[in-house]
Design goal:
One of its GO terms (molecular function) is ATP binding. Keywords: ATP-binding, Nucleotide-binding. The protein is of the alpha/beta class and 428 residues long. It contains 15 helices and eleven strands. It has two domains: 135 residues, no CATH class; 190 residues, no CATH class. The strands form two sheets. It has a six-stranded mixed sheet with strand order 6-11-10-9-8-7, sandwiched between helices. Strands 3-4-1-2-5 form a five-stranded parallel sheet, covered by helices on one side.
Length: 428
């Protein structure tokens, strides 16, 4: 994670709600008008009438958001969780503060003399929140519930990968706009500060993952992975390589889904940041890929984000057991699933082992890691701490991936990922 020096005005000019420092991925969800289903994934399908609290006081906001949570519990969309409710009570205070909050005073201060001595300096901006906890404990849900109820139009909900791509594009545009240098002329330009100011000027609430800043810290960890609770499955979407007829089942499902596509089956070329990425078998919004095609090539978040933009269903065949021997491929796979989950892409997998046995943090040769530690001049206790941190980070990422893949097999997730169905609903 890169750290940039930002002027104080930019640093404190946006309100930031944060999640796990390096290991979470999130998505904004809108509540529909239907109340159905039970478990972690179905809370978004249960909407209720507006709160009877009409006051502008903080108590009214607490009443509204906690009452909404209680109704979701009553209709069976959520399981009662005291920690989640406590977090919402704290977030409701922020919700009230943000109603009339504007960060412009922090990076566009009035000229000297306009402030009376009694007023003094403007009050510091409110602190953000940093939510952390085990996988599937409701951090994404709480963030989305909070975001959907903030009555401030200058808000943005972003994921780490998309945010960093946006940063790089802004930096590139600024560098392109600079006057051409003469041969031999030295010129130093730091685009980070103006880009930070640009983002601060656009938003005062940033709901963001994988970063920590000026925040209160809250643990959301009831010990329950709600994605693993019983949910209605969307048919069979996870096949084992050794199962008789598994390949044939995937072939039939692809052909069935392809019937609704206004396209022919064939390769497709994706343009990603000036590069061409080829997918050998696609049909409209469906891609049929192998694990090697997606994770053994030098691909990253930008490629997977482009896939998520173009496809609502992706078949991933021949996923191996992911040991340390395949560390690079395993990291790409977690990034792939993070981006697909964040954009509600549906997946059908053919793997070598059951889902809960897919990641094995043993085996392989750690020679490259030892060489890296040597290059960094680290040894002894310092090297041990770094290696342990990396291992813990990867294990958490793998656990999150398994948890998300379980949710991605539910009927609720599958239905929400059908973009053709959603487009028809929007048109009507």
């Amino acid at each position: 994670m890169a750290a940039y020096t930002v002027p104080a005005a930019a640093k404190y000019s946006k309100y930031v709600l944060l999640k796990d420092a390096f290991l979470t991925s999130n998505k904004v969800y809108r509540l529909s008008a239907i109340c159905a289903g039970k478990g972690y994934t179905s809370w978004r399908t249960c909407s209720s009438s507006a709160s009877s609290c009409s006051s502008e006081s903080p108590a009214a906001d607490i009443c509204a958001i906690s009452g909404h949570y209680d109704r979701l519990v009553q209709c069976g969309s959520l399981q009662k969780d005291a920690q989640q409710r406590n977090v919402l009570l704290q977030l409701s205070q922020l919700q009230h503060t943000l109603k009339n909050y504007n960060n412009s005073i922090h990076f566009n201060p009035p000229p000297p003399g306009l402030h009376s001595k009694e007023k003094g300096e403007p009050a510091p901006p409110p602190k953000g929140f940093y939510l952390y906890g085990d996988v599937g404990t409701g951090k994404t849900m709480l963030m989305d519930m909070f975001y959907s109820r903030v009555e401030n139009t200058r808000k943005k909900r972003v994921h780490f990968n998309g945010f960093m791509l946006d940063i790089h594009q802004r930096i590139h545009r600024r560098k392109q706009s600079l006057p051409k240098r003469k041969l031999g002329e030295m010129f130093t330009y730091d685009p980070i500060s103006p880009v930070a100011m640009e983002i601060s000027d656009e938003t005062c609430l940033l709901c963001f993952d994988e970063f920590q800043d000026y925040c209160h810290t809250i643990c959301v960890d009831s010990g329950i992975d709600y994605r693993r609770l019983d949910n209605v499955a969307a048919g069979k979407l996870y096949y084992l390589t050794g199962e008789p007829g598994a390949e044939a089942f995937l072939n039939s499902l692809f052909e069935e889904l392809a019937l609704s596509q206004k396209s022919v089956t064939g390769p497709r070329f994706l343009s990603v940041l000036g590069r061409k990425v080829t997918l050998e078998k696609t049909c409209g919004s469906i891609a049929d890929c192998t694990f090697d095609e997606l994770c053994s090539r030098p691909m990253g978040a930008s490629d997977y984000l482009e896939m998520a933009r173009l496809f609502d269903t992706v078949f991933i065949r021949h996923v191996p057991v992911l040991t340390l021997t395949l560390k690079d491929q395993a990291r790409r796979f977690t990034t792939l699933i993070d981006n697909f989950y964040d954009n509600k892409v549906r997946v059908v997998l053919l793997a070598a082992t059951p889902l809960d046995q897919l990641f094995v943090h043993t085996g392989g040769d750690d020679e490259r890691d030892r060489q890296l530690l040597d290059d960094l001049g680290l040894s002894g206790e310092a090297a041990a701490h770094l290696t342990l941190f990396t291992a813990e980070e990867e294990i958490f990422a793998f656990q999150r991936t398994v948890s998300r893949l379980m949710e991605m097999q539910t009927e609720s997730y599958w239905v929400k990922g059908d973009r053709s169905r959603n487009k028809k609903r929007m048109n009507t």
